[in-house]
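FYI - complex with zinc ion, inputs then prediction.
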Amino acid sequence: MLVVGSPEQTDTALLAGEIPCPHCSVPLRPHGHARQRTVRGLGRERLTVRPRRARCSGCRRTQVLLPAALALRRADAVEVIGTALAAKAAGSGHRTIAANLDRPVSTVRRWLRRVPEKHVHWLHKQAVKHAFSLKPEMLAGPKPWPSLLGWSLNILAGAALAFNHRARMELPPWTVIGYFTRGNLLSPPLRN
Ligand SMILES: [Zn+2]
């Protein structure tokens, strides 16, 4: 699984041989599509995508190219989960967040459980890495957020704006954050 930007941009890059295999760096080639998925956006918005599949001519592994607006293994788009995490960082509880997002309390509780301290540290690391390469001055000065989660989301959002500016694109910030975090805004489920 590879997390990529917008579907259109991915098609162009894939056809031009600009997406390297994550295992052996040989350019990936188009290899059909994965099954269609519909995820929920904010409010009643629905997002239907049919992710591209690609194959490496070097090691012959196939990859699904997951658009960055989608979170791995989740029925809700990154913007919905991200909005929930930002609300948590601002002090809201899972019931309030669920009511505001019009999602079941159990779903929101499950998301919030998937950001244990270890994962917040991982998110912070990704945030600092991208901010450092895109706009390092963002990292200077005092941390205005009381929690590391809030601070990390804040840096990710700033880095997303800097990314759009540099790439001359206008991708939704949460989509760019999905790309920065490789679809793992929430930590992967524990293996049983
Ligand atoms: Zn390969």
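Residues 78-180 form one domain. The chain has a mean pLDDT of 90.
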